[in-house]
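User
Here is a favour to ask of a fellow structure person. I am asking you to supply a protein in sequence and structure-token form. Please set it down just below, with no commentary around it:

Assistant
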Amino acid sequence: MSAAGRDAGDRQSLDAGRLSAWLGANVPGFRGPLAIDRFEGGQSNPTYLLSAPSGDYVLRRKPLGDVLPTAHAVDREFRVLKAVEGTGVPVPHVHAMCSDDSVIGSMFYVMDRVAGRVFWDPRLEDLPRGERAAIFDSMNETIARIHALDPMTIGLADYGRHGGYVERQVRRWSKQYRASETGPNPAMEALMGWLPEHMPAEGETRLVHGDYRLDNLLIHPVEPRVVAVLDWELSTLGDPTADFAYHMMSWRLAPELFRGLAGIDFAAAGIPDEETYLQSYLARTGRARPDNWEFHIVLSLFRIAAILQGIARRAIDGTASDPEAAAVGARAVPISQLAWRIAENIEQGA
């Protein structure tokens, strides 16, 4: 049964016949018939499980309809996954990329399915305390491995610009926010003025994931370790400190606001607090504690607010890939307010 058969109203449905023909021509060893299921959750590129006698695969596609010009870059995801495979960073094996919209309506790529667990809540309340600690340690080790990669060595020297990453991030997410505004947000306006005036010195250039968080990782089915890093669409060359700060937003966000850790009892949970987790990363990478850590946290919160605003816009336009998009997008306002409070504390020397 095709995805269309499971949900006739899904605008993102796939044509199983055309897709099967493409898979047969482009994925070594593929053998039908093909069954298609849409993965639930997520706000960005629609993702599907492809099941066939030859094995299980995962398809990631660009959403249909009008989308922001720099968003949903599945072609970049495909390239970086190919480059990173075999470096010690766990990623799925990718098979082929299709830029011909006539196959399923938008560009897509196909990769192997990796068996694993996805955890949306970083508190990991259903797991034993010791497993929580091990998962966080594995997560820390994995991002340190990503930031240790030399872009030149793995064929990604031209994957992004060298230098000026933080400045570009401020410009990009300000532009993205402007393109998806749905109403006034004084905190975002204040941040768009404050961030360019407080730009820190640029760090070294490394491969950055851009959206590294627990729910973009696959955890081994029974062991507390990362087996695959997913969702590389925001990856580029940039400052690893900014990338790691974005990953560490969870420590500043309340659980009810956006899958955060703020306010929990870290010792009782077996989860490292912010400073402990940061120091583990610094020890693994050999880097010193950043002087402008709080700036990077503000920038990270600004980024997620801009991303959520894009989700809010897509919910209004009817192109969102998740039925809860409107509710998720509404969180852009309180997150931007949190970012502005931290910025004000920086100004006051707190």
The two ends are 59 Å apart (CA to CA). The chain has two domains: 3-112, 129-347. The chain is about 40% helix and 10% strand.
